[in-house]
Amino acid sequence: MDSLAPELKVRDWVRGEPLASFQQGELYILEFCGTCCDSCEGAMLNLIELQETYKDSGVEVVAVAAHENAASAGEAQAHLDAWLAQFKKLNFRVGLDDTGTMDTFWMQPSFSIEIPQAFVIDRDSRIAFIGHPGKLPEVLPKILDGTWRTSAQAQAAERERIAEDEPKARNEALKTQIKGKIAAAEEIEDWKTALAASEEGVALDPDDLSFRYAHVHLLLHRLHDMQAGLPALRQFIRDAINTNYECMLQLAFGLLFDPAYDYSKFPSVERFAMGKELSEHILAQSRLNDDYDKVCSYEMVAAYYHASGNKDRAIELLEVALKLLDGPDPDMDGLKEGFLPHLLQTLANYEGEEVCYGDVCVVPQTNIPNGATPNAEQENPAERGALE
Known about the structure:
The protein is of the alpha/beta class. The chain has 14 helices and eight strands. It has a six-stranded mixed β-sheet. The protein has a two-stranded antiparallel sheet with strand order 7-8.
């Protein structure tokens, strides 16, 4: 707090006009948000209200998604567009930065680890507040009347924030070093060293999803150690179902059915038993969610049914997903660009014949593994996100 605001470096503005820099004389609220953040939806709704309340007081809200995990920039933007569509009264700019620059300039130097996180940039371009956006309704009036930054309350709040967040930031730095070890070992295919580093990470933070995933992935798909890997995978799936954590469910499913992996050494009966349990849970949960989540779930679970020999069920799920994309909800239009080519290609592969959607026709791919999709050779986006 009280330092000059860093630069605003956003790769793309997905809502509102581009903002090159913070202007002197204006007061800005910069919020870091994300599509996988459970509490970010509520924070966005509160900021919409805040922007409406203070729109005549020279206050401007800016949100930045800097932690999106996707295989490409286009896919990250499609996910963000779909997420933003729920905010019908969105009244501020939203940017997407997948370069790491905003994290480096803002989050890391302030010991900020979790999102949503808010920064208030005062009219003299200095930081007036750092913290959870839920505290803004209390703090913002004092910032506007000039009594906050010099107050004992502000200084005490900042000391408390740093005392709480700095140890977390140090721990996060250690975890980043371990992730670097894993990545370096994987680069040269030194799987035993990568495994040892993943075990070091699990010991440091048993709840860190990236370390747990790396540990199971290395055991099963690099070292093919079924004796150690299968119990670890069973626990991973059990925890994914019990917590219903979407990212963890996706990662667990990828460990079982990513067509990029060789499952010849994986016990088929156990693989499909775990896949059935996981798929049924994902489908049950998808019924409670919106059409976007249903499209993602149906596309994913179709791989299980196809791999297990139930081709008709796999095709049925993909056809339902296509119908959802073509439904009356205008918010789904933004998803077509990211999902439609993949869905059509997968459906053509499963049916073994040409598939058409409007003027677009796709023929089956040849020389691909059973159950593979057009992105089989690409990096698994969920895997990439877990290792970041």
